[in-house]
Amino acid sequence: MAAETRGCRPWGSLLLGLLGLVSAAAAAWDLTSLRCNFGTFCECDFQPDFPGLECDLAQHLAGQHLARALVVKALKAFVQDPAPTKPLVLSLHGWTGTGKSYVSSLLAHYLFRGGLRSPHVHHFSPVIHFPHPSHMERYKKDLKSWVQGNLTVCGRSLFLFDEMDKLTPGLMEVLQPFLGPSWVVYGTNYRKAIFIFISNTGGEQINQVALEAWRSRRAREEISLQELEPVISRAVLDNPHHGFWRSGIMEERLLDALVPFLPLQRHHVRHCVLNELAQLGVEPRDEVTQAVLDSTTFFPEDEQLFSSNGCKTVASRIAFFL
Ligand SMILES: *[C@@H]1O[C@H](CO)[C@@H](O)[C@H](O)[C@H]1NC(C)=O
């Protein structure tokens, strides 16, 4: 994960991170328990760093005023609540390359000491974990026992589900009981978990709202959650290929937030190029930025407004033009 080198981490956690790397696992655990005696959080390797998260989002997430504010607000409220009444359930929606996976990896990075490699961060991808529709019954059993098992080990677990629109319907219904307020086994452990679902569903509808706003000369920042929520919600409910299809998750209102990602404009792609160059330790060069922008396709055809794949291929194209 890229965030390590980006200068948003306070010295304390950077040093701890280094110590964790060089010392043996046992020593690292001692360090954790030591911190736990004094710290507010003493749950597995859950160690939220909100200033770091906010700084990184502000510097590196291009063009997503809604997602940025919403994610931070929801997480802070949830994490600061010592006895949440239900797990935090976020569903991220938007066009390809708009930052959904980036945001989820930042969350793992700034919430858990081990980031995406933490034993308490669980990442599921349909093509890797659930490829064969004919094995659905086994997948259901596996998923249920994994979630239950992992939550028994650590209540503060993060479960990430990628490409929800490529998931065979039916699987998600086993998750439904874990997402609500009623699931209480072994105390209230289950209610401290965080679930994040990612999909492109609703992306076209979000793009349409952004395009109409642009055509009527409204600032992008004026686009509100209130106008996007219903269109995303409808798109999910109408999509039989989305994992929530008939799972009861939408119907029972188990999602705490639908997080919209807006389509990216030319200046956002430029922002991504500059981020990427900084990441590589390369001085910004106009001809590289220009070459990447020139090789980006934009839509709709007339206005040439939004990047067809957001910032998704920026990194690989930079490598080509350097
Ligand atoms: C936790 O989840 C992983 C999949 O991410 C699974 O392989 C493992 O068996 C689970 N652990 C427990 C204790 O259920």
Automatic annotation (TrEMBL):
One of its GO terms (molecular function) is identical protein binding. It is found in: Endoplasmic reticulum lumen. It comes from the Eukaryota. GO terms for cellular component: endoplasmic reticulum lumen; nuclear envelope. Residues 267-321 form the Torsin-1A C-terminal domain. The keyword RNA-binding does not apply. Residues 1-27 form the signal peptide. Gene3D superfamilies: P-loop containing nucleotide triphosphate hydrolases. The keyword Ligase does not apply. InterPro entries: ClpA/B (IPR001270), P-loop_NTPase (IPR027417), TOR1A_C (IPR049337), Torsin (IPR010448), Torsin_1/2 (IPR017378). ATP binds at G94, W95, T96, G97, T98, G99, K100, S101. Keywords: ATP-binding, Endoplasmic reticulum, Glycoprotein, Nucleotide-binding, Signal. Its main location: endoplasmic reticulum. Pfam families: TOR1A_C, Torsin. Belongs to the ClpA/ClpB family. Torsin subfamily. This is Torsin.
